[in-house]
């Protein structure tokens, strides 16, 4: 018979919390998996927009913009505030743009590395 000690309970709570945080992290990554949603975030990084203006800036239909905003709001990346007759969307945290820029930098380095391999391969 195993008796749960305080240490066992503490470890169980830690594992549960770690799992929950990992799930939340995965949800954010999933929300960033669509290129149009990334464009929406960059557009909102410039200024707050309503869904019609956002659809025009990102060159997608208004219903598509609404669906993407719903996903971004569900993950806590975008907030909405009523402004008169319309709803204005904004970034929930301006650091999202820094995070996206960092990912672009990683991508740039990766592509540069792959290009250098291609150049090496063709020079042999």
Describe the structure in your own words.
This protein has 124 residues and is mainly alpha-helical. It has a domain at 32-93: Winged helix-like DNA-binding domain superfamily/Winged helix DNA-binding domain (Arc Repressor Mutant, subunit A), CATH 1.10.10.10. It is 71% helix and 11% strand. The protein contains 5 helices and 3 strands. A 3-stranded antiparallel beta sheet has the order 1-3-2. α3 (51-58) crosses α4. The radius of gyration is 21 Å and the shape is flat. The protein starts with 5 loop residues before the first helix and ends with a helix. The model has no long low-confidence stretch (mean pLDDT 90).
Low-confidence stretches: none
Please name the CATH architecture of one domain: Orthogonal Bundle
Arrangement of strands in the largest sheet: 1-3-2
Q: What is the CATH topology assignment of one domain?
A: Arc Repressor Mutant, subunit A
Short recap of the structure:
By secondary structure, this protein is mainly alpha-helical. It has five helices and three strands, in the order H-H-E-H-H-E-E-H.
Name a few traits of the molecule:
single chain, 124 residues, mainly alpha, Arc Repressor Mutant, subunit A, 5 helices, 3 strands, flat
Task: Give the helices and strands, then pairings.
Elements: H1 6-31, H2 35-46, E1 49-50, H3 51-58, H4 62-74, E2 78-83, E3 86-91, H5 95-123
Antiparallel strand pairs: 1-3, 2-3
Helix pairs in contact: 3-4
């Amino acid at each position: 018979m195993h008796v749960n000690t305080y240490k066992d309970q503490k470890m169980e709570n830690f594992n549960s919390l770690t799992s929950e945080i990992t799930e939340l992290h995965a949800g954010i990554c999933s929300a960033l998996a669509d290129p149009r949603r990334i464009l929406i975030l960059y557009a909102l990084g410039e200024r707050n927009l309503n869904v019609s203006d956002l659809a025009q800036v990102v060159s997608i239909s208004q219903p598509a913009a609404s669906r993407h905003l719903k996903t971004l709001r569900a993950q806590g990346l975008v907030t909405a505030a009523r402004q008169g007759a319309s709803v204005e969307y904004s970034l929930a945290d301006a650091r999202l743009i820094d995070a996206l820029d960092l990912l672009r930098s990683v991508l740039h380095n990766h592509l540069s590395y792959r290009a250098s391999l291609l150049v090496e391969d063709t020079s042999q």
